[in-house]
Amino acid sequence: xxxxxxAILIKELTQLRRDKSTFAMVLAIPVMQVxxxxxAINNDPKHLPTAVLIRDNSIVVRDLTAAMTNSxxxxxxxxxxxxxEGDELLQKGEVYFVLxxxxxxxxxxxxxxxxxxxLQADASDPSATANSIGAMSEVILRSxxxxxxxxxxxxxxxxxxxxxxxxxxxxxxxxxxxxxxPGLIAVLLTLMGIMMTALSLTxxxxxxxxxxMLSMPVRPLExxxxxxxxxxxxxxxxxxxxxxxxxxxxxxxxxxSWWVFVLSIILFITGNLAIGYTISSLAKNQLQALQMTxxxxxxxxxxxxxxxxxxxxxxxxxxxxxxxxxxYFMRIVRGIMLKGNGLAECWPHIWPMGIIILILSIIAxxxxxxxxx
Amino acid sequence: xxxxxxxEVSNLSKRFGNNTVVDNVNLRVPQGKxxxxxxxxxxxxxxxxxxxxxxxxxxxxxxxCLGYDIRKESNKIKQQVGYMTQRFSYWEDLTVRExxxxxxxxxxxxxxxxSVEAMLRRFGLLSRSEQxxxxxxxxxxxxxxxxxxxxxxxxxxxxxxxxxxxxxxxRRDFWDEIHQLARDGLTVxxxxxxxxxxxxxxxxxxxxxxxxxxxxxxxEVIANSGLQTWSAxxxxxIGVMNELKSSPAVATVAPFGNVVHVSGVDGQALEQVIESxxxxxxxxWSRTSPSLEDVFIxxxxxxxxxx
Lengths: 373, 307
Known about the structure:
Chain A has 373 residues and is α/β, with parallel strands linked by helices.
């Protein structure tokens, strides 16, 4: 009995050794996961870009903003001079916070009148901003304690000397599902689109029908279009399905432009199908196609800002994330649904996605094999 | 000007890595003829056929298929060639009719529905037209494949072991069909392992590990082999057979039921060997002409007859 077991064991190991792609996956997936989870993913994102609107310039205010920078949670990237500017930056996703320091802030503080301090946060991605918001009161308290001496000092010891008002924009209740559900549209379309297309050509190869097809006067582009269009339709149905669930079941708002949404979705699905088509040209069988799909899907899941905030990732991980279409699509969907974005706000994400998709499509056509060589 | 040769290639070569599968092959198949493509497994028959219809790019050589350059005009070749693969390779999850409709549309037939209908009738596939191709038996799959690859009225048929695993009746029907098509002017290149099928061809080409080593009609190939054959019948021919195998003058020994064919290239030496067995065990010897199979086996075992 043991001999038979051994025989099977040896056979399996030999096959595994010959099956280079499975072998590579066995090693690549753990490496990838360990790297992504330990290095790339940061649940305590820091250096969030912040705009400041300062209407009262004083040492106290300067120290306060310096303390915010020193806390590492905030990067004061932009000085603005109107409220409207702040709103625009938030809407486009260029900053996560807008801090407004009102007129007479210092005077009111010194006279114990608890001046108001407004911190507007982009809460469409609550996990990105939660910790920074939490740290804010502590940062203020420490900074002001250091500055206030003498008679006013006693006031700071007992209670908060200012009235910190936090305004969560776009997702006032900081509901994670508001953020997850639109992101899920992006992730599911990625997985399904890549996988279905990846399998479609490999299936033909595996069953030998590719040989019949290639022996007929069909052009590569015709095959590609014929394979991609059905999957595009399937993708649109899926998107509609998820969207209906999102709106009616999870009560996620849809505030932005419908036509920009549809346009982006078509573009995005096309991109995924191009990736899938490339895989299906490279993979020798359906199993390999599935493995490669997972390989591409993992960064889409982890580095796109879906589960973990994009801003919390180190530079190299952001660089990888910037190369995958889903990262941009994630921002577009969330922006349209939660922030009410239109074309103008989405455009900075649409054009890089379009370029990436164009490159992917060119690759897909290039790697397609016209012969059996 | 219409070419007299449907296939005319010279010095055709194809390598896979370091392995030269097709090595300087010169091939000429006249129009309207049925040429049989013979050779042991792995001798390059499938590769040659794939090179001819543009499924593989040749590493060397030039030539034309139906007057079109095999390197540059593979799309034009594909339009007029019917290629039947070794293994059933139509869509098993489509019905018989759907498969044929697909082919008809890909080739841009003027009246796809009518053509398909006519083809279904011609091959007796009408009653099975709505059946999924995957559920057909081997013989019916083969009929469907043939129907599909002549649907666009090609001028050249490339058939790669089309009758492997098909019963004798289906094979006979198949060959009747092929001869019918050839009479209408179609050129056929068909690879096979069946000697009876080779004998139904106008001429055969024997490919041996990438080289053509024999070519011509069946009788020419047999005559050119220089093989001489004796047949033996009797009680213990099998015992004699085993002894004869070790003799250097004997090239091949093959049993055909109660008869054993003993062949060799050197007639005199062969006769001497046989002489020593004449008196033994009541075996009757008679001179016979070698069969194509004798020649086939002889070439296979003697390195293409070139050493």
